Amino acid sequence: MKNFSEWFHNILEEAELMDARYPIKGMSVWLPRGFQIRKYALNALQELLDKDHEEVLFPMLIPQSELAKEAIHVKGFEEEVYWVTKGGKRDLNEHLALRPTSETSIYPMFSLWVRSHMDLPIKVYQTVNTFRYETKHTRPLIRVREITTFNETHTAHATEEEAEKEVMEGIEIYKTFFDELGIPYSISKRPEWDKFPGSKYTMAFDMIMPDGKTLQIATVHNLGTTFAHTFDIQFENEDGTHDYVHQVCYGLSDRVIASLIAAHGDEKGLSLPPVVAPEQVIIIPIIFKENQDVVLNFTDNLEKLLKNNGIRVKQDKRELRPGKKYYEWEKRGVPLRIEVGPRDIENNTIVINRRDTGNKEFVDYDENTVVDVVKDRLDSITHDMKEASNKFQEEKTFAIEKPEQIKKTINKKGGIITCSWCGETDCGKDMEEKFDIDVLGTQESDLENKTCINCGKDASYKVLISKTY
Ligand code: P5A
Ligand code: ZN
């Protein structure tokens, strides 16, 4: 792919996912096909969250007084907040913020809900729209001003240990979710200067995009007791003493759909893993006038059979050249295409085409086994798509040891480089400026006898570096 940006914009239009022409910068329209993919992706995520969390829905507006309470948090967001200042012609007594995220909307209510240790833990999530007046270059799904698919989880716990466990649980949920979608990631702990405003620390998932830059696709934050102090979220222990709750929040956005598109798409267009595909199978009857009935009778049966067995299937009976239909459905990313023509029926075969590999296969047709065959191919597609995208992320991750390799590697190959680092903020920021890169974050690693790539002091971490979106 020569120009990722251009390719990405085209695919949104050509696969009929989004219309970016909405007349407000940073805001786009979800089209039916895009919305279905979003729905299936959200279903997969919510199924994981629902095992151990409850869904809620908070208002979109936050009183200025609440937003302003947590000083560090508000400082992190103040340049990005949209304000509602009027009701009709009247100025509002108190300005209302369109939530940029929901900590300051949710935690005042936590303060009312939590009385005793019996009320804990609280584990809730919501899928909402949030607004951020982004000043960097906006792009559909990737950097938007209305995040239309903000899935955020917020929890409160009696102890620090439980909060730590929730961080691990959040990471596991996202790992499973991204694995199901075949979205590759590297997980690291964000450096101090780039953690979520108000948090103790931030764990982040980053995916390497086709152009070599990384995109942050999810974050998990340990909030410690900072917000609990700010919003007075206290509980009574068994012995009558009071403590502040320990909190965790994590979230992801429309970027998940962007990463899904980027991870699997190619020159032919979109390529979807079956779990999120609006149609998992497209049947193309090859029709000639004289044998139309025989073919359609066959394909109608096949369609019914697959549908009755829980496969999302569609048949394209339009009077168009088959080649034109193939091209259209490939562009839309349908994982499997089945072609049936008169000769196939005579030979008792069907032709199965995989979107991901382009592989074409003649399969003996048997009503009793065809469902299993199709399910098996869909599973193989899921498996292989995940392998392929993980491989890309691995092959684009380079371990280096010398500072002169930083710029060279990033500029030539893109992706993520890993090296040893002292962990000092001054050194990290110096590195970012000197090499024109971003420090993604750190991972634990065996660093005996290793020194910092930048300053030469003893190394404390393995650090991940890249150019970012
Ligand atoms: C966690 C959920 C939070 O807001 N509060 C509740 C925490 N974290 S975050 O890192 O600021 O945002 C979560 C994820 O949202 C994505 N994201 C965006 N996506 C599209 N357009 C934007 N303007 C945008 N800003 C953030 C990122 O993936 C981020 O990790
Ligand atoms: Zn250093």
Short description:
This protein is of the alpha+beta class.
Account of the 3D structure:
- With 469 residues, the chain is α+β, with helices and mostly antiparallel strands.
- Helix 2 (32-50) packs antiparallel against helix 6.
- It has helices at 4-14, 32-50, 64-69, 71-77, 103-113, 160-181, 226-230, 255-264, 292-308, 322-331, 342-347, 370-395, 404-413, 425-435, and strands spanning 18-19, 29-30, 54-55, 61-63, 83-87, 90-98, 122-131, 146-157, 186-189, 201-208, 214-224, 234-236, 242-244, 246-252, 281-285, 313-315, 336-340, 349-354, 360-364, 397-399, 416-421, 438-443, 461-466.
- The strands form six sheets. It has a seven-stranded mixed sheet, sandwiched between helices.
- It is globular, with a radius of gyration of 26 Å.
- It folds into three domains: 4-264, Bira Bifunctional Protein, Domain 2 (BirA Bifunctional Protein, domain 2, 2-Layer Sandwich), CATH 3.30.930; 279-380, Rossmann fold (3-Layer(aba) Sandwich), CATH 3.40.50; 399-466, C-terminal domain of ProRS (Translation Initiation Factor IF3, 2-Layer Sandwich).
- The longest helix has 26 residues, at 370-395.
- The protein binds '5'-O-(N-(L-prolyl)-sulfamoyl)adenosine (P5A) and zinc ion (ZN).
- The site of zinc ion has 8 residues, from loops.
